[in-house]
Amino acid sequence: MLENQQLLARKLLERVAEExxxxxxxxxxxxxxxxxxxxxxxxxxxxxxxxxxVTSLLNKMERxxxxxxxxPQDNRRVSQVWLTEAGRQKAQMVRDTFTRLEERLFQGFTxxxxxxxxxxxxxxQENLKEDGSRE
Length: 135
Fold this sequence. Notes:
- This protein is mainly alpha-helical.
- It has a single domain, classed as Arc Repressor Mutant, subunit A (Orthogonal Bundle).
- It is 64% helix and 7% strand.
- It contains six helices and three strands, in the order H-H-E-H-H-E-E-H-H.
- Helix 1 crosses helix 5.
- It is globular, with a radius of gyration of 17 Å.
- The chain starts with a helix and ends in a 6-residue tail after the last helix.
- The model has no long low-confidence stretch (mean pLDDT 91).
């Protein structure tokens, strides 16, 4: 499983690097495509990234014109993160890249096999997220 994850990550990063994106940015862009205007801590939680790493990612993405941060009038202690038009285009490119890779991953699988595998992987993920106190 680790080897599969590494191969998938490498294929994805090769494709998005051609578009000037670095590691970590694709996941953030895709999340923002569905959750535009969210808070930074929501990005960190959803993308399983430390808050400091998200800050660093967003600083670079803001410099590159992919996102902008806005402080809401009603709560000046937080900032919301929004995609720019350039960021929205990059996010769509990331989504299209994920889709093409997924199609390649499941080449030769029946829809039933595909769903069965996805269900099993979901169960594995849930097991890994469980409290490890039973170990």
